[in-house]
Structure formats: structure tokens, C-alpha cells
Amino acid sequence: MNTFENVVSYMATPQDPCRTQTVRNFPRATVAVKVMLRSLDHHRLEGVTTDIGGGGLFVEHRTFLQVGKELAVCLYLPDDFATPLRTIGKVIWVRREPSRARFPAGMGIAFTGISESARDRLLCLIQILDKMRFADGSSYKKTSAALYSGRAAGT
Fold this sequence. Notes:
The chain has one domain: predicted glycosyltransferase like domains (Thrombin, subunit H). It is of the alpha+beta class. The protein is built from three helices and seven strands; from the N terminus they run αβββββββαα. It has a six-stranded antiparallel beta barrel with strand order 2-3-4-7-6-5. The longest helix is centred in the last third of the chain and has 20 residues, at 116-135.
């Protein structure tokens, strides 16, 4: 890639000042999922994810927990609302103010105690969402229909 293409690529990628360097070990997806957080000192928060992956998630919220705080995480995924995904996580960064329209206030949480089956469930959901989003351009209608009818689990 030439220098001009590098600049265009960089400018086309949304930048978040809270995370200057990001290393990802697992794929991520943009999806709104209800999440319940509970700290060891029983502080409870309910929020919505805007970004989730096999290694962690971002929770949109105006109440912030301290970086390093360990949490019980409960996610209500669209593949099976009745069976929430439960894991342990840790607050790794906080964005106290929205940064442009695409980056709301909230917290980045890394999964520190996720089981292999829970991570597989997340990665399967992300793979399904990616396939549906990029298959034919009708991502939201197709995603909703498949996930909520239960047909996505076999994909």
C-alpha cells in the first residue's frame, strides 16, 4: 500500500482517543445487548453493550467503575435470552465523556474468567452477525429474523 492509501485507510478508520493502541485476540461485533454488572462490593449496574468480542465488551453507561475493578458480568444474548452468559471481567478503561457521535461514554471490560463454552457462544454469535451483515446488504432484517427465530444457532 502506498503512503496515500495508508492515510486514506487511517482517516476512514474511526479513532477513539481513550484507546491509542488496541491489540485484539478475538473478533468483535457491533451489537446492542443487555448487560448486568456486579462488583465484589455489590455495586450493581445495568447497561447496554455497543461492542462485544471474545475477549471483552464495551458498556455504554454514565456511571463509571474504577479501572481494575473486578465484576460479575451477565449478558443477555439474542441467541437465547432465557440463558444469560455469565462470566467474570475487569474494567480496563473508562471513557467519561462521549467522543464524537460514534463513541459514547462508558467502560471497556476485559473478560478474565470466561469459560471456553461461553467464549465459543460469543464467537459463534459474532460469526453469524458478520455473515449476515456482509452477505447481501440486508443485515438488520436478516440478522433479526434468523436470531430471534432460533435458526441462527445451526448456521
